[in-house]
């Protein structure tokens, strides 16, 4: 079984920096750009080479029973998932009609155009043998992929606020050349020159440069050299500097992963008869930098990263079977991880020990703990039941020689 967590690709800026940087974007704020589409398409091509061509784990043509794709409710994540799937299952790999009877039956209950009449003589189900992909979209505020929202976890505001204050004071001297350039070159006000509030301007700059755009009022070399340090501290010491904020943000996702992997092993051992879990092989979460960084922080892998999760950053979790023994292999952007120090020299992590470690890093009382110490009335969490249904309906696995 393969579980994949990816950040969307390069997008337009939705922060407040575009006006100061004198930048105009080709689409509305926050939407995926062509560069981002290409990033995910190429990731899909790479995955096809490994999991279809090399390992024969996934079928040559798309089988919806083998894939479960979950996205947040934003254009950029939905389009990122679609682009990646198109790389994994490109044009020419879609379904064909097995016989003329099915082809002749495949007509709508209304008159079709002359052009369409010509196509119905083809055995291609869709033109160019395109594969349609089902993508399941979560509500805007959800614990599974957007757990850092104050709306669903109010206590995070306290944890994160304190972390940002501490991180600003511990980094402001080192980051001074960056803040100085932002003030002098871009005209950013002093109140935004800190580890918490500088991000909209630096995000705009980051996305512009990654999109191949020219920033006329560019930063100095010294300031550019501090960008990775700013982003690492913003995410891993600011947003998720308090381990509890990372835990509350990522627990629903990690619990989902653990429950699904455990159930998949049960199916493989013959102690579970779930048809869904017999069939499922690939789960794709199309999400955000906060999703990935909270996960990395919770599993104590933040020091393997040099900056924030990059556009199209991809974490792969493989369930592997050797003989009668199960292992987990973690990879983020081609870098193998040793999660929980239960891995051999080949970075194969013992399954049950890894599951115990992950359980020790999360909470199963997310809704309750998000309310602790909250001032005022408690949130009713109207979306929790929706997410519980989504998560409760999924538990994942599928075997290819080594990979389950």
TrEMBL record:
It comes from the Eukaryota. The keyword Transmembrane applies. GO terms for molecular function: phosphatase activity. The chain crosses the membrane at residues 381-403. Keywords: Hydrolase, Membrane, Transmembrane, Transmembrane helix. It holds the Pfam family His_Phos_2. Gene3D superfamilies: Phosphoglycerate mutase-like. Belongs to the histidine acid phosphatase family. This is Uncharacterized protein. It comes from Euplotes crassus.
């Amino acid at each position: 079984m393969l579980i994949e967590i990816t950040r969307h690709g390069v997008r337009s800026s939705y922060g407040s920096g575009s006006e100061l940087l004198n930048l105009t974007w080709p689409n509305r704020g926050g939407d995926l750009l062509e560069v981002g589409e290409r990033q995910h398409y190429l990731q899909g091509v790479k995955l096809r080479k490994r999991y279809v061509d090399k390992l024969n784990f996934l079928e040559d043509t798309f089988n919806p029973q083998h894939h479960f794709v979950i996205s947040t409710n934003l254009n950029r994540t939905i389009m990122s998932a679609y682009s990646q799937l198109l790389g994994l299952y490109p044009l020419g790999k879609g379904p064909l009609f097995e016989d003329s009877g099915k082809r002749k039956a495949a007509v709508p209950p209304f008159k079709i155009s002359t052009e369409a009449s010509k196509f119905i003589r083809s055995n291609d189900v869709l033109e160019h043998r395109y594969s349609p992909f089902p993508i399941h979209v979560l509500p805007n505020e959800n614990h599974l992929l957007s757990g850092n929202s104050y709306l669903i976890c109010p206590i995070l505001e306290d944890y994160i606020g304190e972390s940002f204050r501490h991180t600003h004071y511990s980094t402001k001297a080192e980051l001074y050349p960056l803040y100085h350039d932002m003030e002098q070159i871009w005209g950013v006000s002093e109140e935004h020159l800190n580890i918490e509030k500088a991000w909209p301007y630096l995000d705009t700059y980051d996305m512009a440069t990654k999109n191949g755009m020219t920033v006329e009022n560019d930063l100095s070399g010294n300031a550019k050299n501090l960008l990775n340090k700013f982003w690492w501290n913003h995410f891993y010491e600011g947003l998720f500097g308090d381990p509890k904020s990372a835990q509350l943000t990522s627990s629903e996702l990690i619990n989902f992963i653990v429950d699904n992997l455990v159930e998949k092993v049960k199916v493989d051992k013959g102690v579970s008869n779930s048809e869904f879990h017999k069939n499922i092989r690939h789960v794709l979460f199309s999400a955000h930098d906060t999703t990935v960084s909270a996960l990395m922080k919770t599993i104590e892998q933040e020091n393997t990263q040099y900056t924030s999760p990059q556009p199209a950053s991809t974490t792969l979790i493989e369930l592997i079977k050797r003989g009668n023994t199960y292992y987990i292999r973690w990879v983020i952007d081609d870098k193998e991880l040793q999660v929980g120090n239960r891995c051999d020299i080949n970075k194969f992590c013992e399954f049950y020990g890894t599951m115990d470690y992950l359980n020790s890093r999360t909470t199963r009382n997310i809704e309750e703990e998000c309310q602790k110490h909250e001032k005022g009335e408690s949130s009713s969490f109207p979306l929790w039941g929706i997410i519980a249904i989504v998560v409760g309906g999924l538990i994942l696995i599928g075997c290819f020689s080594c990979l389950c």
